[in-house]
Write a structure and sequence with these properties.
heterodimer, B: 113 residues, mainly beta, 7-stranded mixed beta sheet
Amino acid sequence: GESVGLHLPTLSVQEGDNSIINCAYSNSASDYFIWYKQESGKGPQFIIDIRSNMDKRQGQRVTVLLNKTVKHLSLQIAATQPGDSAVYFCAENSGGSNYKLTFGKGTLLTVNP
Amino acid sequence: EAGVAQSPRYKIIEKRQSVAFWCNPISGHATLYWYQQILGQGPKLLIQFQNNGVVDDSQLPKDRFSAERLKGVDSTLKIQPAKLEDSAVYLCASSQRQGSKLFFGSGTQLSVL
């Protein structure tokens, strides 16, 4: 069946360090992946996305890596700041052209000053 | 640009009561989604609209949940009668078209006692 999950439910880092959040997916047909950030009391906020024809995409302080061989997705945050503290979700498009997002359980990132 | 608006922000009801949530998407966004997010989990899609038509309601518990998007703009999600397990945050999201970036509202937190 389709599922998206995270290896680590919580991650605690020091301010200024780099953070890596991991995600495993099981649907090899998924063609589009997105990372969302959700702060307490707010809805998920888009961070970065990647299509299955790519293996790396960079944004401002964030990089997403996609390894289709092992069905693994990661989000790297450079120079992590206290404002990065939130729950991070990966999501995959499991509906093809019908575009149906399936979210993973989430990883809580805590940045210590 | 105004974001996705949702109301109410919080709602507390007793089981077997009815409740309705309202969503106003970003102006011009054709696609509207309702997600259910249970505490500690990722959002789960309940229903997706394209303009005023339903694209996907496969995970909507139709015996108690209903949703409509009259005129292809605002949407309401109703639960009747509510059960304890319906306690969750109900998130509305919209996108310009199917397959483009989703923008989420802050959600309605429902507690069923």
